[in-house]
Amino acid sequence: MIYLFSNRSFGAQFVDAAARFSRRRKTPLTVVFSGRRLRERGRGGPVAMLRSFAARLRAGTDPAANGLPVLVVPDVNAPAFVSSIGPGDVGVIAGFNQIFGAPAIARFKSFVNFHPSLLPFYRGPEPEFWCIDNGEMTTGYTIHTVTTKIDHGEIHYQEALAIDDADTAASLSRRIAALAVPTFERWLECAASGERWTKAHVDAAALYRVHVDYRSFHEASAKQAQ
Question: Which of 19, 72, 106, 159 is 20 to 30 Å from the Cα of 5, by its Cα?
Fold first, then answer.
């Protein structure tokens, strides 16, 4: 089983690619959306709202699923979810708002994150916003092993992308995702076939003007509100 932990913004193009891959290869693949935001909003009753949303997804009425089986998980570190991960399962993150603990990570045969910056710089959420805010001319994406430290872990692949003058955080996010999707498809093929992955790194320190380590979502939200 392959699990794609994703969302409806940065992750949308990854979900579409995962659906194509699953249909072509007949490989079981499940999309996992986070239930945390629904639970925290609490509108209409958090439990009822979450159950209603999950029911719509199971019925295939949410286009974000693109025909794939979907789980809505409020807490990926809950024992019930962790125990459901099989020893040979593969995990991929492409936009997700929860941090995985060691027990969940250890359950996967392999577990990587597609992060929308050139690590080790611009860790954390909203790196597209911070790159634009800092006047960067180039950014990109990184595939790295998931660890308990946010956006750390072994780097497997990186690719750079020029930032356009007209880019917003949203448009840059879409362009990074579009650049990364062909590599995501190759990663899935390797995961399914057992083929060895060829690594590629870029010199992030030379490409970024500002060597930002980590910025939080709350900092980005406050900055955008100014």
Answer: 159
First to last CA, the chain: 44
Query: What CATH number matches the domain at 2-225, 3.40.50.2300, 3.40.50.170, 3.20.20.80, 3.30.2350.10?
Result: 3.40.50.170
d(CA 143, CA 99): 16
Q: List b or e across 139-150, with b for residues whose CB sees 16 or more CB atoms inside 10 angstroms.
A: bbbbbbebeeee
Length of the chain: 226
> Which has the closest alpha carbon to 59: 48, 72, 47?
72
Convert the pLDDT of each residue in 93-144 to its tens digit: 999 999 999 999 999 999 999 999 999 999 999 999 999 999 999 999 999 9
Residue closest to 146 by CA, chosen among 90, 73, 213: 90
Buried (b) or exposed (e) across 22-45, using 16+ Cβ within 10 A? beeeebebbbbbbbbebeeeeeee
Strand partners, 6: 33, 94
Domain ranges of the chain: 2-225
Q: Within 13 Å of residue 177, how many CA atoms lie on the same side as its CB?
A: 21
Helix, strand and coil percent figures for the chain, each rounded to 5 = 40, 20, 40
Instruction: Output the pTM of the full model.
Output: 0.86
The DSSP annotation for 61-108 comes to: --GGGTTS-EEEES-TTSHHHHHHS-TT-EEEEES-S-PPPHHHHHH-
